[in-house]
């Protein structure tokens, strides 16, 4: 039996180990703690504080883009490179540039090779060239003629020719040391490259370029190459003739080494773009048609943009040159750059003095004037950004806007609307609101930057700025999406009557609408049905057409001014005041019911509800009379039966030390009800060392909660100031898996978007063993039950659990509660007389279940309930004693023959046989009479044997 017992013991251990391995690799769905989410930042160069875009160059592949930037505050020069059409950027600058006093300016990329890029250093008038995409840079020095006698005086543009026989011409336009228009080029790719001049009669050029009288001061303002340069070798230059106050388009041939009429077929060149008496040419830009061919006059289509001066006459414009014919497409505007999409016949132009962009379809033949980009959809920010450089990147238009709040932007509709996607020149500022789609995948983030610009950022795989607006620094922007369509969005400014609406997530257009009162809060029932809680009153107004027209205001009956308003579905509204009043409407603002009693200690009221029918529950909390200097409670009102608020936390939103004194005392700034779980966002503004600490408080059973025992909480890091106090509603929830969202009201590096994924609210531990209705054996020797091993799989990232054992299925008679700290994949707790002095009662059925404890990190739902039963103890049988039968006396008669006298044989009595009880489980015991028969039979057999022996005749 011992050997058999050992075998069974080993088998049992193996079975237990195998069961522990089941589900040993759990899925961790979330952190159940506060953490920061990605927001627009300097990572990937989405934000670049103080770095102003100067110029931009897009390679022929459309995805490689270079920009020059200059930090005017710290005098730092930069060249950034993107290989994904401007979504992310890397810094390819040289560290020495800052120390060498380099000033990054105009930049150009080769149309033949995206790795050949050059820029002008305006500080020292030298050119820097990279032939490996910015990995290294070569200082080409200052442009000069072949013998060094004529050097550059001023550089105003740069271009790189298509590669011909391995040679690319890095070309700059400006003026030379004699104040004549000058074009210099560096023939990189040659065995001995050097600077040469194209505007002087030299050994290299037969005919130079002289504009007007030789004594006039002139300069070349723009330079570009024919896209078919390998065939026609044509270069175009825009020149300003100061003697005649003219703007001229000049043509040069690298084949003939001559200009204008000295180039075959260009007899009527130069072409006068504007000869109406130009005061000064500040800027010019050239865009060739992709089919331009110098030898074919019918294909000579060129667009030129000019920024002429700030006078009252001809400040600039957009011009179309069909060979020598000039059409003014738009005049009276200052143009910084032009770009032409030949395949689509579409033109875009960026302004110089603003962030406007103009666009024109059928640009080669249209008689119409270009149209501007949408009011709130320009690159950069109105009234702050300027000098817009535009280019085509595939089918999209990209733009680099300089100045304050400038940015790199993309247009997906041919320049009608732009979204800033990177290089946004702004400190992040203060976050004022966030809106989250139901699945948590899309976000809108409202920001007030340090320039008092209100921006709305959209996240859908990447951050893009889709709306901006200047305004006073006291206003906060708030965001309210339509519940049925996250792309339909309202933006309002608290305390103002402006209302902005988009139907496509801010992608292409915003519409300005007006409310009839200043807005305290906005509730969106649908894209068309919206409600305004008026600032400074208890009135609410409704619009059935998205804010075009408004119904008359309705007084809600609250004694105090509105604070927050929320829609709970069609016609269902709930309202909290600035001092604890709560009201609700079930008929779309026609009528309101007030509760007649203020919530808690009064203050700005956060309120939500499970519904607004009789028997539903309203939940509320407040920020209190002070500013986070004492804890607030959480309260419940049952519609139809309550006459006063029920305190459902009792001990308030507070943490306590070991002496019972409050450590952190939270006031409520947000409230949400999701999947039956109530969440309250609390903030202690007087936390440890004066730091603000925020926390989420939640109960899984708000409809039955009466005290702190059903609540758990998780606070933010006490070492950081985290103030999740945005007004009027600081808490948001997405419901895919319950995820809470809030923004920190700090600025700059302290501005963060926080989230809290609650993976425990609607989940529970999975029990492993013992199986339900398990039997626990009694040790037959000791009469005590065996130990029981309770096991379950780890839930999410839980680290502490409550095991509860009761005598009834409702757990009203709790026999044992065990707290277990563990991060094991499978958690085990052993209870019984041999491990933990727990005595199980014979024949008793026990009920058990498990949940994550309040510190582990939050309560979870309880697991399923399982049972186990203790076997009844078996009665031990007493010893069985069998008494021997009396010894038989056998008298044999004397034989007839002469034999000795009869002999009496006495058989000795049998021994007393005592049979001990059988070990458990008892084996069947034979009855006593059976043993008596056996003994008697044995005695008789012996007697017969003796008789036979005695009566044998002698042989």
Give a short summary of the structure.
With 955 residues, the protein is mostly beta strands. It has four helices and 71 strands.
Q: What does this entry look like structurally?
A:
The protein is mainly β. Among the domains are: 333-426, Thrombin, subunit H; 764-870, Purple acid phosphatase-like, N-terminal (Immunoglobulin-like); 882-950, no CATH class. It contains four helices and 71 strands. The strands form 19 sheets. Strands 14, 15, 16, 17 and 18 form a five-stranded antiparallel beta sheet that branches. It has a five-stranded mixed beta sheet with strand order 61-67-66-63-64, with no helix packed on it. The chain is elongated, with a radius of gyration of 46 Å.
Q: What's the tally of helices? A: 4
Q: What is the straight-line distance between the termini?
A: 57 Å
Helical amount: under 10%
Main sheet properties: 5 strands, antiparallel
Number of strands: 71
**For the record, what CATH class of the domain at 764-870 applies?**
Mainly Beta
Determine the strand fraction and express it as a percent band.
35-45%
Q: Examine the secondary-structure arrangement and name the CATH architecture of the domain at 764-870.
A: Sandwich
SS class: mainly beta
What integer is the average pLDDT?
Answer: 87
Low-confidence stretches: 1-30, 902-907, 920-931
